[in-house]
Amino acid sequence: MNEAVRNEAPRTYDVIVIGAGPVGENVADRARAAGLSTAIVERELLGGECSYWACDPSKALLRPVLARADARRVPGLRQAVDGPLDVDAVLAHRDKIASYWKDDSQVDWLESVSVDLIRGHGRLDGPKQVAVQTPEGDTVHLTARHAVALCTGTSTALPDIPGLGTVRPWTNREATSAGRVPGRLAVVGGGVVAVEMATAWQALGSQVTMLVRGDGLLERMEPFAGELVAEALREAGVDIRLKTSVASLARAGGAGGEVRIALADGGALAADEILFATGRAPRTADVGLENVGLTPGDWLAVDDTCRVTDVAGGWLYAVGDVSHRALLTHQGKYQARIAGAAIGARAKGEPVDDARWGAHVATADHAAVPQVVFTDPEVASVGLTTREAERTGRRIEVVDYDLARVAGAHLYADGYRGQARMLIDTDRGTVAGVTFVGSGVGELLHSATIAVTGEVPVERLWHAVPAFPTISEVWLRLLETYRDQQQPSRS
């Protein structure tokens, strides 16, 4: 391991990875497992956004919120959890999960797999060339024999709103690392980050107002998902304002003053902090794209092995969020495993398995992307939505079932509310998409992902017997509903 590299002769590796989040770490690990010498370049913390400012700390904030919500629905238990959360304990646990924003354990892991770490800001400096500006002000020049992988992820896409820079808005980073609970929190956006952080901070004591430009929450998912989440948030005390846009911002009285929000409809709102959860932008503005014929700041188009299509020679890979295929940590890690294996095969002159569902292609990016939204109720989905099927011309049959009618749901919670939807590809007789909404449905998702990815015939699914009494019995109920829908109507 050579972490503090100083000015020296250029160094050569088989593979150079820029960005040491979960995606970059997995590319490096797979390349090293293929026997290739590998270096990874990181300017912040190893583990990236997910470990310190997104997945891990956000779920640490949400877990006590959701556990308490579930407990309150269990007779005999609700009285034991009545009362506010212990905010200090929740935040302390969040800090522990985020490793107190230190990456020592990640460095140890890199050492264990024999990947060299170079701290600093890495930029492409020509074909297979990377220049790293170190924290000490030195420049390290690296050359890749086979591949460079850009795994730099994304950051919050902030809108162009007058006064935005003066209010120091929260992004996902501040929302997941804040050390105190704001009395009033305005959340701009209606997607996953917006609903999860509204759920967390409302339960921790904030008065939360959501400002949503669209017609509903979670608009990329099935409509009932956003509707059920919005219903629960409102019941919890969140003020959700749809079709609402921010016109301008100002912070009164200096750093500790309130944020004054002018709305496009002429209304106004005051908050102690304002969180923008308005989408993501690629971190490609300053990684040297111009030196290899690409436009700085752009998303990077890739083939199914994650090679950048607009760069000659096939040496540049873009993996994870920067490829704009599926902006999810688990999906980026999947791409990383694919890319690392493909790099290894090409470096050794071995055949590339690029058939559909082959070892070197990210087919799931197109057909089976799973996602869980950790709200109350949870949302879990994989594959197509009804809207996507209609847009792409897929012939499907929609099968809906009320999750509250499943026996296991009655045991899970008194007054359980939820919904399940299964989409059947009528030409192939397989499951094309599944969406679940309800407490605990995240644990149902992998079975749905296997059904979609494995293209399991519906006839075969009848033989996958769900245990009684569990919520997974919803699979049987969906199949029964589908069967009944196929029966000719009786006059």
From TrEMBL:
Transmembrane segments: none annotated. Gene3D superfamilies: 3.30.390.30, FAD/NAD(P)-binding domain. It comes from the Bacteria. This is NAD(P)/FAD-dependent oxidoreductase. Residues 369-475 form the Pyridine nucleotide-disulphide oxidoreductase dimerisation domain. It comes from Streptomyces dengpaensis. Residues 13-330 form the FAD/NAD(P)-binding domain. Belongs to the class-I pyridine nucleotide-disulfide oxidoreductase family. Its cofactor is FAD.
